[in-house]
Amino acid sequence: TVTDHGVPAKSTTVRVIVKVLDENDNRPQFLEKIYKIKLPEREKPEKDRALKRDPVYRVIASDRDVGANSEISYSIEEGDEHGKFFIEPKTGLVSSKKFSSAGEYDILTIKAVDNGRPQKSSTCRLHIEWIPKPEVAASAPPLAFEEPPFFFSVMESDPVAHMVGVITTETSDTPVWFEITGGNYDSRFDVGKASGTLIVARPLDAEQKSNYNLTVEATDGTRFVSAQVLIRVIDTNNHRPQFSQPRYEVVVAEDTPPETEVLRIGATDED
C-alpha cells in the first residue's frame, strides 16, 4: 500500500506475489540405511529368466526438495559383479535375472541420485539371504487371505512411507511373502515383503488418479494366492480458484436499466 501526504490522504494497494525458487539443498534419503530380507531360493531355468525378471525387493528414497530437484533415479553401485540383478531406475525395484540357491547371500549397495543441479545422492545396503523353500505339510490348510477384498483410503498429502493399511493372510506355520503384481499405476504404492504393510511409495495426486485397484500376491514359496486391494486417494484443497482470464473489460451505456447483466465472470478450481 502506498499513501500520499495530502489532506485528506489518499492511498492505493497492489497485490505482489513472490515465488520462492527451490534450491537443491536436500539429499535423497532412503527409508532404511540397511535392508535385510530372507527369500526362498529361485529355481526357475535361466532361459525362462531371460523372458521375465523375478521381483526381489523394492528400496525407496524420498527427497524434501520439489520439482526436478526431488526426482530420484536408482542404480546398483556394488555387489552385482556377475549381473545377477537389475534395478528399475525410476522405482527402485530390484529383480533377479539368475538362479539363486539356498545358502547364498547377496549384499547390494544401491545409490539414489536426484535430478537437481548439482546432483545430490545417498546410498543404502540391501542384504538378501536365500533360504530353502519351506516345506508345506499335506494336511496344512490352504493359503488364503483374511476377508478379501481389502479397502483402504489415504490423503493425497500423506508423505512417502505413510502406512495405508496391512494385508493379512490366515494363520500359517510357514513364512509368507507379499508382492504387488498389478494395478500399481506409476508405482505409487509398495507392500512390505514379509509384513504385508502397504505404504505410500511415491507422492500421490488425486487429480491425476484417485482410485487404485491393486492385485497383491502372497506366497509361501510353493503356493500362490492373489487378492484385490482397493485404495481411494482423498483430494485435499491445494488449488486456488483461477479466473478464466486475468482482466475483464466491458462498456456500458449510461442509460442501461438497473439489474441488467453486463458481464459474466468465470472461474475454475482443479480440486
Fraction in helix: under 10%
In the CATH hierarchy, the architecture of the largest domain is Sandwich
Number of helices: 1
β-sheet strand percentage: 35-45%
What does this structure look like?
By secondary structure, the protein is an all-beta fold. The chain is built from 1 helix and 20 strands. Strand 8 (85-87) and strand 9 form a beta hairpin. The radius of gyration is 27 Å and the shape is elongated.
Short account of what is shown:
The protein is mainly beta and 271 residues long. The chain has one helix at residues 46-49, and strands at 2-3, 11-12, 29-30, 34-40, 54-58, 61-62, 72-78, 85-87, 93-96, 105-114, 121-131, 150-155, 163-166, 177-182, 189-191, 197-200, 211-219, 224-234, 242-243, 267-268.
Please give a handful of descriptors for the protein shown:
271 residues; mainly beta; Immunoglobulin-like; four-stranded mixed sheet; 1% helix
